[in-house]
Amino acid sequence: xxxxxxxxxxxxxxxxxxxxxxxxxxxxxxxxxxxxxxxxxxxxxxxxxxxxxxxxxxxxxxxxxxxxxxxxxxxxxxxxxxxxxxxxxxxxxxxxxxxxxxxxxxxxxxxxxxxxxxxxxxxxxxxxxxxxxxxxxxxxxxxxxxxxxxxxxxxxxxxxxxxxxxxxxxxxxxxxxxxxxxxxxxxxxxxxxxxxxxxxxxxxxxxxx
Length: 209
Description:
Structural class: alpha+beta
Largest sheet: 8 strands, antiparallel
Number of helices: 2
């Protein structure tokens, strides 16, 4: 009789454990489906970036294989979503000439951008005696002689999206801002100080998330 009672209690215990397991599983599935439905309805849009201006302190070839450059760029980031906030994590900015980095990376502090919010960053980008390929030195020399230099300001990092109290995982973000800087025509900009000119650009950047 005792053995039957034990078997009966063991059966009831296993049945209770299974019921609890499936209840918890169903609860988790409902939560995930709710989040996915909300996410699909809201359809968060990637942020918009604009390169507003570039202040040029130095851009000179020390030889055909070395370049000195110092910029300060102003970049506007806008969140176009009216129900989704954006976290920016580990953003780093640098300047490129024909896919070769010509400055060190400058970090942007972690930022939370509320719905339809706007942030403006003005990082300094600097490269001293940066080694470049001889053919690039020749092309930069030609650009300087013609009076304008095409550079690309790049930002790389991570973004997270916030809907209510839910925060998504991290997504990689790549931002490319093309900038044609008329170095040979300083009158097209504004003198900040002697030999330092701020050039207005207002260029929409390509954003990939």
